[in-house]
């Protein structure tokens, strides 16, 4: 995902001179092409993420569309106050980019795992939360972000994620839900967000599960009309799966929206919803992303 992100950002920067990239002393072998082509639109701030958030806000106030990029929870949880007060509060044109979502840095322990940040950022007013599920979605979201004027969080995988969509490219709008598998007769819909999408697809195919699969590349906002249509065509209910704490993640967002839709009379039947996510705990072991997913029960 991160390679597709930086390649698309380079393309966007060739068309838009206002794009500026900040990094926190990382991204080597990934960000160099951008830095070499746009040396006056790139700055390595060092290991100072809170300061980087303030710099990003300042650059945005002068007219730039600023991306600040670091790993896991460092550009998010570490500088939540700066994101809230300097970026979201002022509706600054800043894109917070986290690489290594969920357990991607699982061997480094909880300090490097981004497993709560969706919840922390989706409650902030004015913030769009994007969770691409494969490299094509990462490219499409980067393209959207280059023309979007306002705060956005982009949650990327680390590297090597498989392409799930069969098309060469996908056309996304903010809030869209993407269909991955739909088969006639399936009455249960699975919603997956982020880089666990491929694991969900693999399990459905491997175990021949009668589930339709949808990617949720935006946790905030979520297209209500698309959600209503999916609910109405899947009477057996919904399953949400994500590599994030069960509280305040994508599954929580789906349930909240469904509650409001039901109250407002936009859906007649409140669907059954099974949420699969990280339980209310820190992982007590370290290991690979696949190992930690199994350890925390992240499977359909």
Automatic annotation (TrEMBL):
<keyword id="KW-0786">Thiamine pyrophosphate</keyword>
<dbReference type="InterPro" id="IPR029061">
    <property type="entry name" value="THDP-binding"/>
</dbReference>
<comment type="similarity">
    <text>Belongs to the transketolase family.</text>
</comment>
<dbReference type="InterPro" id="IPR051157">
    <property type="entry name" value="PDH/Transketolase"/>
</dbReference>
<dbReference type="InterPro" id="IPR033248">
    <property type="entry name" value="Transketolase_C"/>
</dbReference>
<protein>
    <submittedName>
        <fullName>Transketolase</fullName>
    </submittedName>
</protein>
<dbReference type="InterPro" id="IPR005475">
    <property type="entry name" value="Transketolase-like_Pyr-bd"/>
</dbReference>
<dbReference type="InterPro" id="IPR009014">
    <property type="entry name" value="Transketo_C/PFOR_II"/>
</dbReference>
<dbReference type="Pfam" id="PF02780">
    <property type="entry name" value="Transketolase_C"/>
</dbReference>
<feature type="domain" description="Transketolase-like pyrimidine-binding">
    <location>
        <begin position="1"/>
        <end position="163"/>
    </location>
</feature>
<dbReference type="Pfam" id="PF02779">
    <property type="entry name" value="Transket_pyr"/>
</dbReference>
């Amino acid at each position: 995902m991160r390679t597709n992100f930086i390649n698309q950002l380079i393309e966007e920067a060739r068309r838009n001179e206002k794009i500026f990239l900040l990094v926190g002393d990382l991204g080597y072998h990934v960000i160099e092409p951008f830095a070499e082509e746009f040396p006056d639109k790139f700055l390595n701030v060092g290991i100072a993420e809170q300061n980087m958030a303030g710099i990003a806000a300042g650059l945005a106030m002068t007219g730039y569309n600023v991306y600040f990029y670091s790993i896991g929870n460092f550009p998010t949880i570490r500088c939540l106050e700066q994101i809230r007060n300097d970026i979201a509060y002022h509706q600054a044109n800043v894109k917070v980019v986290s690489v290594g979502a969920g357990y991607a840095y699982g061997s480094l322990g909880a300090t490097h795992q981004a497993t709560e940040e969706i919840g922390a950022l989706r409650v902030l007013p004015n913030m769009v939360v994007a969770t691409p599920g494969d490299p094509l979605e990462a490219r499409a979201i980067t393209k959207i972000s280059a023309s979007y004027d306002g705060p956005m969080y982009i949650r990327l995988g680390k590297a090597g994620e498989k392409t799930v969509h069969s098309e060469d490219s996908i056309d996304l709008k903010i809030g869209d839900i993407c269909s991955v598998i739909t088969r006639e007769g399936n009455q249960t819909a699975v919603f997956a967000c982020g880089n666990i999408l491929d694991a969900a697809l693999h399990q459905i195919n491997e175990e021949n599960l009668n589930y339709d699969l949808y990617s949720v590349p935006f946790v905030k906002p979520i297209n209500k009309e698309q959600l209503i249509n999916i609910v109405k065509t899947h009477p057996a209910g919904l399953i949400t799966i994500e590599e994030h704490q069960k509280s305040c993640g994508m599954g929580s967002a789906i349930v909240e929206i469904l509650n409001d839709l039901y109250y407002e009379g936009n859906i007649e039947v409140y669907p059954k919803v099974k949420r699969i996510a990280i339980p209310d705990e820190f992982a007590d072991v370290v290991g690979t992303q696949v190992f930690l997913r199994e350890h925390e029960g992240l499977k359909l």
